[in-house]
Amino acid sequence: MKEVFSQLITDLHAEVLPRPIPRAVCLKKLPQMVRKAHIFVGMRRSGKTWVMYQHMQSLIASGVDKRNILYLNFEDDLLSSMRVSDFQSILDAYFILYPDLILSNDLHFFFDEIHEVNGWEKFIRRLLDKEKMEIYISGSSAKLLSKEIASSLRGRTIVYEIFPFSFAEFLRSKGIEYSVNTSTKQKARIVHYSKEFLMFGGFPETISIEKSFFIQLLQGYVNTVIYRDIIERYNIGNISIVHEFIVYCLQNSVSLLSLHKVYQRFKSQKKSVGKALLYELIGYLEDVYCIFSVPLYTYSFNKRSLNPKKIYAVDQGLITAYTIKPEFEYAARLENAVFCALRRKRENIFYYKTKTGYEIDFVVTLSSGKNILIQVCTNMKNSETSKREIRALTAGMEELNIKEATIVTTDEERIINDNNKLIHCVPYWKWVLRE
Predict the structure, then answer these.
(1) Alpha carbon distances (Å) from 426 to 150, 201, 374, 415
(2) What gap in Å lies between CA 305 and CA 401, rounded to an integer?
(3) Which of 207, 264, 361, 373 lies 20 to 30 angstroms, CA to CA, from 56?
């Protein structure tokens, strides 16, 4: 294998590195005495490999010699027969090529899909313990879950979640930058692209493909998650139930999910499935960053556990790819997009029910302990809709002692003062670029 690694390293340094669309992923600079591996996790096709290439480009731009960078993709067919004993050959091949770098403190090794080789953890631990290079790892969710990485590498990691493009990244892919001084014409383009983003989402490959292939592409992503990340990984035999359940979740994104009702639905169709499997499937889908669940905001653990959770897709494009309710999908995509923007930066996200039974889409608890309330509404121009949303928010603000809240809308912008409670109505495109 030493000759194979030598050829791959030589080829890497002879080729021009890909220059991906910049992602908003900032890698932490660690003190020299701190040894941790940088790990990229996220749903398939979210752009983990391209984040690696982006960091390589950044290193080179900062003055790092390209020879100091090693990148290996373990899905390369040349490495298909690799065993754990071959890992040492990577170091042997590299330092035979570059003996002057043996004592260097400025080496950067990137390992893509390293989980394809059983026992990879021991090799990475040895590098962290005995070598000096910076280590970067990415892999499919099927075999490189963040919680398993933490266990395998015993806390020697920094994990970065990689999501599909944010709206700002999506605009950047179109060559558009936004600032407070953006011209009226530029704002019109941003509004136009916000509609496209809400429809098709931000998976990187969807940016440049013909939209006629969009549904086929995204359903292909989900099928890969179903078969490789769920069925193969957990050795589940009931394939049709798994597929139907996941599609059901995507078709009902932004809704409350009652697993008891889903169980009864399968039962009425005379399909054999246990409740335990349904609970497990939700956990699996969250592990692989396909679907997220949002619990009720309450101090009571029992109430939070007993109440159904709201579910959201990792990208609103998945709603379009699986929609069966066109009249509902625009509102669903907008709310899902707001959730995705929140989840990129925060994990303490809840929904809220007032004492009078009104529902508020999001309660976000900040690190300071402060709560913010966000409601999502496509059309605040309708007086009845406007009254309903304001009534819900003001009730929640009163109960949670909050003075200001936000309604994310399609295109309306105004401030509502209701008994000294300020509600900011903000168009999605403007809210998400500020978020």
Answers:
(1) 40, 20, 11, 9
(2) 24
(3) 207
How many Å is the maximal CA-CA distance in the chain?
75
- Are the C-beta atoms of 390 and 358 separated by less than 8 Å? no
The pTM score is: 0.92
Query: 346-435: which CATH topology?
Result: Trna Endonuclease; Chain: A, domain 1 (3.40.1350)
Partnered with residue 90 across adjacent β-strands are none
The CA distance from 27 to 33, in Å, is: 17
Q: Are 106 and 68 in contact (CB under 8 A)?
A: yes
What 3-state class would DSSP assign to 361?
strand
- If one compares 159 and 7, the residue with the highest pLDDT of the two is 7
* Closest C-alpha to 170, from 189, 146, 143: 189
In this predicted structure, what is the pLDDT of residue 53? Answer: 96
Angle at 24 between CA 18 and CA 26, to 5 degrees: 95
Give the whole-angstrom CA distance, residue 133 versus residue 124: 11
Q: How confident is the model at residue 144 (pLDDT cuts 50, 70, 90)?
A: low
Q: In what order do the strands lie in the sheet with 256-257?
A: 256-257, 309-313, 291-294
- DSSP E strands, 87-183: 108-112, 134-138, 157-161
Say how far apart CA 73 and CA 385 lie, in whole Å. 52
- Extract the tokens encoding 245: 């359940």
- Matching residue, tokens 């179109």: 174
CATH class of segment(s) 2-161 = alpha beta
Closest CA to 223 of 200, 207, 199, 239: 239
Residue 220, burial from CB neighbour count under 10 angstroms (0-12, 13-18, 19+): middle
H-type alpha helices, 236-297:
239-251, 259-268, 275-287
CB 214 within 8 A of CB 317: yes
CA-CA distance, 209 to 220, in Å (whole number)? 14
Say how far apart CA 289 and CA 105 lie, in whole Å. Answer: 35
Output 372 or 121, whichever has higher pLDDT: 372
- At which residue do the structure tokens 């500020």 appear? 434
Question: How would you classify residue 210: left for phi > 0, otherwise alpha for psi between -120 and 50, otherwise beta?
Answer: beta
The Cα 391–Cα 375 span in angstroms is 11
